[in-house]
């Protein structure tokens, strides 16, 4: 991949695929955390902190995904600007 010519479309496609994959994992972790909250609230309240930790991990994953999407979009804009500038110079 290092030796191949970089293609802008490949970056955006990869970013979208990874975003969808992480979003699916995020949904699964969030649902599991909510199920644990209800389970531990009824059966074992002393273990409720485990569900809270899982939900906090899901929240951290959401923040990380947001940062990844934001930075990926900014990088794509910069790549397009660089490509346009290089074409104008030619």
UniProtKB/TrEMBL annotation:
The chain crosses the membrane at residues 21-42, 48-71. Keywords: Membrane, Transmembrane, Transmembrane helix. This is Cache domain-containing protein. It comes from Acidithiobacillus ferrivorans.
């Amino acid at each position: 991949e290092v030796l191949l010519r970089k293609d802008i479309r490949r970056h955006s496609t990869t970013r979208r695929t990874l975003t969808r994959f992480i979003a699916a994992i995020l949904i699964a972790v969030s649902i599991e955390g909510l199920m644990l909250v209800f389970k531990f609230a009824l059966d074992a309240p002393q273990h409720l902190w485990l569900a809270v930790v899982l939900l906090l991990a899901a929240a951290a994953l959401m923040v990380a995904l947001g940062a990844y999407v934001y930075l990926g979009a900014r990088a794509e804009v910069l790549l397009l600007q660089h490509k346009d500038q290089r074409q104008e110079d030619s």
